[in-house]
Amino acid sequence: MGNGDIRLRNFAKLIDEDDKGNLTLSLPELVEKLILFENLVIESSRLKEIPILLNTIGFESTMNLLKSGVIQIHNDKIAIGSKNKDLLHLVGFSELKAFGTDPSHLFKTNIKEIKEDCDISKRQFNLLENQLNSIVTSYPEECIDNLKNDFRSDVTPNSNSLREAICIKTKNLLNIEIDASQIEVNTHLTTDDLFKHESNLKELLDIDKATEYHILDSALLSIGGLNEKILQMDIYNSISGFKPNEISIFKARVCNQ
Prior knowledge:
Helix content is 53%, strand content 19%. By secondary structure, the protein is of the alpha/beta class. The protein folds into two domains: 6-77 and 101-137, no CATH class; 143-256, no CATH class. Helix 7 packs across helix 9 (209-236) and helix 7 (160-174) packs antiparallel against helix 10 (244-256).
């Protein structure tokens, strides 16, 4: 989807959501990215950026921005998700699947929400809908399989990225710092989407099995989230920022290769 110099293309999420569900969009950040990059792909939050822009800079300026040819809006989501966690953790398993949305249905739903949230005329709404339809993008169909295969490639016995993710989750959940070299972990695929956990975390950290499997499951999900970000950069030939914890997992992932 992206061409040209990757350094001139940015994939970014511009909306922040607080604990109460209130959404904010930083216009200075948006302007800065438009200055620094030739192309900006916005990782959308259900097209909630649009009502904020309409209510802040008005309909005409919003349309000019959307027509500029500089912006694309990625309005789709795929992810590695965990099912039946409480039951499967009792026997040391995780069911981890790759999930995706229906982009067409998602677009129709989000457009309807914009119509309900914004005070614009029917003519303006039709113009807005047509313009969004031309710049809103989604994942290619094969991306769910690609994400699943990349995730399975990362989940190998004592993989550096998995051990680093475990260190981070141990710090976050238990406030205990451990060295990745201390960890022995073998999380392997047994049947389709079902992973068996074996590790030394119970003895190393003096925790129960439920906590051990919770840490392992959370670490695996963080790897899945990182893999989606790498997939986004590959699809759009763009650069994207990593969160601080993701940087160390990414470095460990590179060392695996």
